[in-house]
Amino acid sequence: MKIDILTLFPSMFYGVLGSSILKRAISKDHIQVNLIDIRDHSNDKHNKVDDYPYGGGAGMVMKPEPIFNVFDELNKTPGYFRDQKTIFMTPQGKKYSQKKAQELSQLDRITILCGHYEGVDERVRDNLVDEELSIGDFVLTGGELPAMVIMDSVVRLLPGVLGDEASAQADSFNDYLLEHPHYTRPAIFRGTDVPKVLLSGNHAQIDRWRKKESLKRTLTRRPDLLENVKLNDFEKKLLEELKQQDNI
Ligand SMILES: C[S@@+](CC[C@H](N)C(=O)[O-])C[C@H]1O[C@@H](n2cnc3c(N)ncnc32)[C@H](O)[C@@H]1O
């Protein structure tokens, strides 16, 4: 997958691209990340990228020319339009979700535009952007952190990127349930035992325990997720058992 990032602060990405899964995904050629400094594409002799808002008011607005100039360049790249999407990060966008991460992971190429100041000139949004995404109902200083969130969550879904494919599959939200608790060695830590079933070696029992804990977590922390989920008969039975327990 190719990922183009349009930003005024490319150096913010160095840490995240140089560590952990993203670093490995780049070195194994699963992804190619193209950090584009919008400032380099300004027509202004001082590389100005923002200006005062028409009509007055507080803050500055990112000018359209440098961003359009970047897209003029990108459009010259052979095959740029094939299976690609341009995303603008904004708190006004559709709330990002695991489902959207899965959808984006199917594309060949994504282009992410990071806003700053009060945001971008509306003509950029109208003419260059396919989709607007928000990472939550709060306002950050820029779109760089949200772009990193998108990149990380999408890249870990690409085939071969995670060491153990099953681990992305079992993550919370992939089947609309929160994931079950995890334990590692030692079996007793500061007086607290690991649940016995996990030490039993009985995989059917372990799977049952995990599914039940997953349902319990979802029921107690995110009951809204259960409204849209189609449970199978086994899961329905476990859920009924849980609902009958007093402490749930
Ligand atoms: C200070 S914010 C601008 C907010 C804008 N004035 C508004 O009210 O919608 C600057 C930039 O940060 C990014 N940003 C801030 N919060 C975000 C969020 N929750 N999700 C995605 N992007 C966000 C956007 O790219 C935005 O253009």
Automatic annotation (TrEMBL):
EC number: 2.1.1.228
The protein's name in its UniProt record: tRNA (guanine-N(1)-)-methyltransferase
Keyword hit for Glycoprotein: no
Subunit: Homodimer.
Protein family membership: Belongs to the RNA methyltransferase TrmD family.
GO cellular component, one term: cytosol
Catalytic reactions of this protein: guanosine(37) in tRNA + S-adenosyl-L-methionine = N(1)-methylguanosine(37) in tRNA + S-adenosyl-L-homocysteine + H(+)
A GO biological process held by the record: tRNA N1-guanine methylation
Protein keywords: Cytoplasm, Methyltransferase, S-adenosyl-L-methionine, Transferase, tRNA processing
Main location: cytoplasm
Known role: Specifically methylates guanosine-37 in various tRNAs.
Native source organism of the sequence: Natranaerobius trueperi
InterPro entries: Alpha/beta_knot_MTases (IPR029028), tRNA_m1G_MeTrfase_C_sf (IPR023148), tRNA_m1G_MeTrfase_TrmD (IPR002649), tRNA_m1G_MTases_N (IPR029026), tRNA_MeTrfase_TRMD/TRM10 (IPR016009)
PANTHER family: TRNA (GUANINE-N(1)-)-METHYLTRANSFERASE
Residue stretches making up the tRNA methyltransferase TRMD/TRM10-type domain: 1-227
Subcellular location: Cytoplasm
Positions with a binding annotation for S-adenosyl-L-methionine: G115, I135, G136, D137, F138, V139, L140
A Gene Ontology molecular function term of the record: tRNA (guanine(37)-N1)-methyltransferase activity
NCBIfam families named among the record's database cross-references: PRK00026.1, trmD
